[in-house]
Amino acid sequence: MKKKKSESDYDVGYRKPPKHTQFKPGKSGNPKGRPKGRKNYTTIVREALAKKVAVSEGGRVREVSYAEAVLMALAAKALKGDVRAAESLLRLMQQHLAGGDEAESGSAIDPEIVIQFIDAKGRPKSIGKSSSDGKEARSSLRRSEN
Questions:
Q1: Which of 96, 73, 94, 86 lies closest to 142 in space, CA to CA?
Q2: Would you tell me which of 35, 38, 67, 136 could form a disulfide with 49, CB atoms 3.0–4.6 Å apart?
Q3: 88 and 72 belong to one structural domain
Q4: How many domains does the chain have?
Q5: Confidence tier at 128 by pLDDT (50, 70, 90)
Q6: Residue 14 pLDDT grade (very low, low, confident, very high; cuts 50, 70, 90)
Q7: pTM value?
Q8: pLDDT > 90: what percent of the chain?
C-alpha cells in the first residue's frame, strides 16, 4: 500500500506551488473580477438589436427588430440615391450573402450594375482618394467577387 505524503513531504518546485499559496476550494484566483451574471459587450449589442420597434410600411404597422429597421432605412436611403448608403448596403450583402444564400432569396448581386450605379452617381470625396470616376469602386468590387 502507498503511504500518503504528509504536508511536510510535499515537494515544492516547478508547477508545484507551496500549499499555503494555492487557491482554496471554492475561491477564485481573481476575486474582484467580473461578477457572475454580468453581460459582456456582445450580449448587450445582440439584445439591443433584437428589441422590437413598430414600423409603418405601406400603410400597415408591423413590429420588426431594431436591426431589421436599420437595414430597411439603409435600403431606402440607397434607393433614393445615397451613394454611401448603397456602398454600406452592398458591403453588408457581400459579407452576409456570400456562399449561395443569394440563390435562395433571388437577390443575386450583379457587380456590373453596381459599377454603373456608382459611375452614374459619382463617389463622395470623403471616401477613398479624391477621384470620383468610380475606378476604385470597380477594382474593389472585382476583387471581392473573385
A1: 94
A2: 67
A3: no
A4: 2
A5: very low
A6: very high
A7: 0.48
A8: 25
Domain that holds residue 92: 81-146
Q: Are residues 122 and 135 in the same domain?
A: yes
Q: Which three cell numbers stand for residue 114?
A: 453596381
Burial of 74 (0-12, 13-18, 19+ CB in 10 A): middle
> What's the CA gap between 63 and 72, in Å, rounded?
13
Interhelix angle 41-50/66-79, nearest 10 degrees = 70
51 grid coordinates: 428589441
Same domain, 105 and 119: yes
Q: Based on the fold, state whether residues 50 and 90 are members of the same structural domain.
A: no
On the question of pLDDT at 145 being above 60, the answer is: no
Cell of 108: 443575386
